[in-house]
Amino acid sequence: MSKSSLRYRRISLTDYSNLDWRIMTSNYLSEEELESRVQRRTAELEKANQDLRVEIIEHKRKEEALLQSEFIYQTLFNSIDEGFCVIEMIFDENGKPVDYRFLETNSAFEKQTGLIDVQGKRMREFAPKHEEHWFEIYGRVALTGQPARFQNHAEQLNRWYDVYAFRFGEPGKRQVSILFNDITERKQTEEALRLSEEKFSIAFANNPAAIALTRLEDGLLLDVNDTWVALNGYSRDEAIGDFARTMNIWPTCEAASRFVQELREKGSLSGWEQKFYKKSGESYVAQLSAQVLTIRGEKVILSTFVDITERKRVEEALRESETRFRTMFEAHGAPMMLIEPDSGQIIDANDAAARFYEYSREQLRAMRIDQINQLSPEEVAAERYKALERGKNVFVFRHRLASGNIRWVEVYSSPVTIQRQSILFSIIHDITERKWVEEALKEAYDSLEEKVKERTAELKKAYNLLKESEISLAEAQQMAHLGNWDWNIITNEMYWSDEIYRIFGRTPQEFGATYYEFLDYVHPEDRYYVNSAVKEALNGKTYSIDYRIIMANGEERIVHEQAEVIFDKKNSQNSPVRMKGIVQDITERKKAEEALAKMEQVRIKEIHHRIKNNLQVISSLLDLQAEKFGYVEVLEAFKDSQNRIASVALIHEELYQGKGTGNLDFAAYIKRLTRELFSSYNLRKEDISLVLDLQNAYLGMDTAVPLGIVVNELVSNSLKHAFPEGKNWKVSISLRKTEDFDINKVNSETDYICGEEGNFQYIITVADNGKGIPEGIDLQTADSLGLQLVNALVEQIDGCIELKRNQGTEFTIWFNSIEK
Hints:
The protein has 820 residues and is an alpha+beta fold.
């Protein structure tokens, strides 16, 4: 009952208080009728009054219940952990939701959003770039009344939310209640878990080592990677769901059980060497590492297999190699030492070293190399580490003998591995006499340099004197063999100083003082060159040339001439009007330079000759040593080593027989090298033919030596392995400049990645039409010594190598000629 109805009823009671007066004043009703009406009316009033009291009591009860409900609502509203708010949606004139206003929030709202004092304010006041999808979802809930449950990211709040939104109140109010929870941490955990699983999956699939995932309880194979498949010969479908013991991978069940038992006790194992069997029945030795993991509540074994079969074979070969090395070390006539790289302690020295240093071998083993070397201990240590890092190096030292004599030595030092210990192997050559010659040459060169400096100082002094007087100028020119001239281009008149007349061996009376007369004195073979240089100078280029002249007595001299041209700047064409310059007789200096160049060529050729002879001695020693072995593999290894040494010796022989320029005619070298290799392998011409397509290429030593060894390795590999019994086999070698190499014309179906990656000068291709290298062999990870050597040497010259297997084998090497 409303307050207005109560008020109306109270007014009605007041009106009825005058009832007696109206009854008494009534002249129309009888007393009985009037009494009856009063009784009826009184009963109605009593009933109405009773109903009013009941309604008032009920109203008070509802008000109390409403207050109690409001208290419970507010308590619940502010005590829940989830954020809660009531918003009013704001639409633009097109009915698009663009913002919302906060009407009410609970206590958890601030913690869940980081927003403070939001009531009555709009969302865009706090986050101007709040995503549009928030407004679209809430606007749709306000208009349709359909609740929405979703998860979304709020960029400006930097949080993820799980949201439940529903319409609040009448549709026209466009209000929405939002219950939400900050799930950022959960999302981050889920993302971290996803990334971790993704990384594990990638690492598992792409790991170069063979990996298997096995259930600890019964040994069931759960997963294997591609490397495991390639190693064992089973497909993934064959392996997954089967047991290693039933696949006969383990040699015995006891071996597998022993491995699992120890793994259960320790939780992880590493370095476990075990023999296994492939699907084909072939055995291999692997180094096994394993760890027990818990994945989705189940204990599994993560096992990693590394095939060490080849390493085991190499270790055995290394032991044999160490024996051969020891034999060579003891018998060699050159002084040799084995040195510990960290301390410099001499581990061993051969008899030749004992004779050279005049100590016994026992005395040398008790010494450090810095007790012999005249460098400081710090300098010796630095040189040792340099040798170790570079892999091989050559040093020149001064060594003291037991007698106190000092000898210059050239030390060839390289790291070797003996009994798994890396030590320095050094070969010592006495170069004392050569150093004496070099020092004498250096003194001569320094003396010449000093004279040049003195002459330069004199020239500077003479130039300063030129400014003082013509007399001083003439004297200075005579002293420096330097004359000056001046040519009037307009009149073709030329002035020569006295010194120029002396340089040309002429007198003023003989010289017609014109440009064309001057050209008559220039050597006939140099006239065109001089005249062209003058013409270029008249067009603005620099004029500084050397040329030959013929003196009056027929003697040939060499002069240096510099000049500058004066232009008429007042003329719009900027025409040359005058040219002036100097001439200096440099004949003696040129002779001295040529003498030094010839001496340097002789020295370089002598070095190549000695290196060639030393390499041939080593090759002969290998040949003698090979006669002591009956194993084919050992003989082939010795033969390969001889061929490698011979390829390097051949380079030095070519350089020794050449002009001493230091560059090698590589095309001629390849012809001779291949001829030697075909002869070495005793091949008949009708069985294997050789096709050469070689352009001229002159390469420096730093490129020729590694590349020569590479060609030796590739051709030897073809001759040894590529051709089965039969005829019509062919080995092809081409050498050309990259500018003459059209990739598109060679093979449109072949990708030359090296040609796209680098700017190379030359391309060399070694190919055969044999049976080809197996597809399973990767050039970059091959375990054969020959291919490893090829990769290392191509990398040494900063080159790029590609392997094609189309109808045989084709190696293409892209490289530059390294100049140092």
